[in-house]
Design brief:
The chain is α/β, with parallel strands linked by helices. It is 36% helix and 26% strand. Among the domains are: 9-84 and 162-169 and 192-223, P-loop containing nucleotide triphosphate hydrolases (Rossmann fold, 3-Layer(aba) Sandwich), CATH 3.40.50.300; 230-302, Alpha-Beta Plaits (2-Layer Sandwich), CATH 3.30.70. It is built from 11 helices and 14 strands. Bound molecules: adenosine-5'-triphosphate (ATP) and magnesium ion.
C-alpha cells in the first residue's frame, strides 16, 4: 500500500477531461482536497459533479489528465484507493430484498473488514445511522430518509479515510437532512476527508470548509464560503418585493450604474448594496437589507438558481 504523507492532498485532479460523444462532461478539471476537510462541489445540473466523483472511484475513466486518490494513481490503483474510501452515489443502489443489516454486512465483506471485527463494525454503522432498531427490516419497507441513512452507514462501515457524497440529502425533510449533516460533520471532526456535491446552499455553508463552484466541467471559483461571498457578492444585498413593473424599475435604476441584480420569485436583490450612493437608496424606496450569501455567488457565477 502506498503511504500518503500527512500533508499530501486526499485527492488531486489535474487537467481531467471526460467526454461522452459530443458532450464534454468534465473539461480540464483541477481539484485538490486538503486532508481532514470537507470540500463542497456546487454546480448546476449537468456541471459534471457526478462524473467527477465517478472518475475518482474508477467507475468512469478519464480521457485525459491525472487523478490521485489517497496517494494512489487512479484508475491504475483504483482498487486500493476504493478500499480506503466511502462512496454515497447520487443514484441509490441498495439491495431491496435484503435487510438493513445484510446490506451493510455485504459491503463490509466486499471492503475486506476482517471477519473478527465485522459484526462490531456493522453494529457501529447501524448505531451511527440510527438504524439499530430497523436492522432486521427489508430495505423495501424503509422510508426515504432511512434509505439515505443506510446508504451512508454502508459507505462508512470500513472506516474510510475519504468519503465521497453525491447529493446526500436531496429530497429529504429538514430533520433528516440535519441528522445527515451531523453524521458528516462527525466524520470530518474525526479527521476524515469529505468531498460532497450539493444543490443546497445551506448545506455547503454549514458543512464545507471549502467550496468549488463548477460550471461546464470546470472549477470557476474556489474558496471558503465566506471568502467567496466577500469576493463575488460583497457585504450586503438590498432586496425589494413588488409587482414585476416595480422590480423592472429597480433594475433600470441600478444596472446602468454597474450594480448587479438578482431575481428570486417576487423579489429583486441589488448586490453590493453597501456601495450604493445614498441618493440612489432614497430613490429606490423601501427595501430590506440582508447579508450577501453563497447563493448570490452561485447565481452571479453560473447564471442559475439553486433549489430552494
Ligand atoms: N454515462 C453517460 N453517458 C452520456 N452522457 C453522460 C453520462 N454521464 C453523464 N453524462 C453527461 O455529462 C454531463 C455531466 O453530467 P453529470 O451527471 O456529471 O452532472 P452533475 O453535475 O452531476 O449534474 P446533476 O446536478 O444533475 O446531478 C451531462 O451533460 C450528462 O448528460
Ligand atoms: Mg450529479
Amino acid at each position: 500500500m502506498t503511504l500518503t504523507p500527512p500533508s499530501a492532498p486526499a485527492l488531486q485532479m489535474r487537467g481531467v477531461v471526460k467526454t461522452f460523444g459530443e458532450i464534454r462532461a468534465v473539461d480540464g478539471l483541477d481539484l485538490d482536497l486538503t486532508p481532514g476537510t470537507c470540500l463542497g462541489l456546487l454546480g448546476p445540473n449537468g456541471a459534471g459533479k457526478s462524473t467527477t466523483m465517478r472518475m475518482l472511484t474508477g467507475q468512469a475513466i478519464a480521457d485525459a489528465g491525472k487523478i490521485r486518490v489517497l496517494g494512489h494513481d487512479v484508475p491504475r490503483e483504483s482498487k486500493q484507493a476504493r478500499a480506503r474510501m466511502g462512496v454515497v452515489p447520487q443514484r441509490e443502489n441498495l439491495d431491496e430484498d435484503l435487510t438493513v443489516r445484510q446490506n451493510i454486512t455485504v459491503w463490509a465483506t466486499l471492503l475486506r473488514v476482517p471477519r473478527r471485527s465485522r459484526d462490531a463494525a456493522v453494529d457501529a454503522a447501524l448505531d451511527m445511522a440510527q438504524l439499530s432498531d430497523r436492522a432486521g427490516s427489508k430495505v423495501l419497507t424503509l422510508s426515504g430518509g432511512m434509505r439515505r441513512r443506510l446508504l451512508i452507514a454502508r459507505a462508512l462501515v470500513h472506516a474510510p479515510e475519504l468519503v465521497l457524497l453525491d447529493e446526500p440529502t436531496v429530497g429529504l425533510d429538514p430533520q433528516v437532512r440535519g441528522d445527515i449533516w451531523t453524521l458528516v460533520d462527525r466524520q470530518r471532526s474525526a479527521g476524515v476527508s469529505v468531498l460532497m456535491s450539493t444543490h443546497y446552499i445551506e448545506e455547503a455553508e454549514r458543512l464545507c470548509d471549502d467550496v468549488a463552484v463548477m460550471s461546464h466541467g470546470r472549477v470557476i471559483a474556489r474558496g471558503t464560503p465566506a471568502t467567496l461571498v466577500a469576493e463575488h457578492a460583497g457585504v450586503e444585498a438590498l432586496e425589494f418585493f413588488g409587482p414585476p413593473a416595480r422590480l423592472a424599475q429597480i433594475e433600470r435604476t441600478v444596472q446602468p450604474q454597474g450594480f448587479r441584480t438578482r431575481r428570486t420569485g417576487p423579489a429583486v436583490s441589488v448586490l453590493r448594496a453597501e456601495a450604493l450612493p445614498l441618493g440612489m437608496v432614497d430613490e429606490l424606496g423601501d427595501g430590506t437589507r440582508r447579508a450577501a450569501n453563497l447563493e448570490d455567488v452561485f447565481v452571479l457565477l453560473t447564471g442559475e438558481k439553486l433549489e430552494d
